[in-house]
Amino acid sequence: MTVPRSAGALLALSGLFNVITAAMFVVPFVWFVVGALWLVPFAIGVFQIAEGFKILRNEPAPRARTLAWLGVASGLLNANPIPIVLALAAMRRLPAAPAAPGLRLTPSAG
Questions:
Q1: What does DSSP assign to residue 98?
Q2: Domain boundaries, given as residue ranges, for the chain
Q3: In this predicted structure, what is the pLDDT of residue 1?
Q4: What are the DSSP calls for 78-108, one per residue?
């Protein structure tokens, strides 16, 4: 199944805003222990950018939906609504994840 390139662009932009915002928290607070807490949203943003560029290059990106959800969480931690909206827009354009092979969605008759 093909993924629209717009989803990759939105995911990469969401990651870019997460990286910028997290860096703005890490740099001034690195002298305190608190600054290290924003390294997690920073890393999530970097992975979002990488996965977005994979989609733009038409390569398989199996973690795109997960990273979009993590981008929403990272945007909440950064208190920045822009990456939240961009990650939700990217998630809207991503195809639904297939069900697991052994997962039965309807109850059995017997």
A1: P
A2: 12-27+36-93
A3: 61
A4: HT-HHHHHHHHHHHHHSPPPPPPTT---S--
Q: Is 96 exposed, middle or buried (0-12, 13-18, 19+ CB in 10 A)?
A: exposed
Q: What is the pTM of this model?
A: 0.82
Give the closest residue to 11 by CA, choosing from 81, 91, 78: 91
Angstrom distances, CA of residue 75 to CA of 4, 38, 42, 86, 92? 23, 11, 10, 10, 17
Cβ atoms 71, 83 nearer than 8 A:
yes
DSSP state of 110: -
* Contact call for residues 67 and 47 (beta carbons, < 8 A): yes
List the structure tokens of 57: 């290059």
Residue 62 tokens, joined: 């199996």
Residue 9 φ then ψ, to 5°: -65, -45
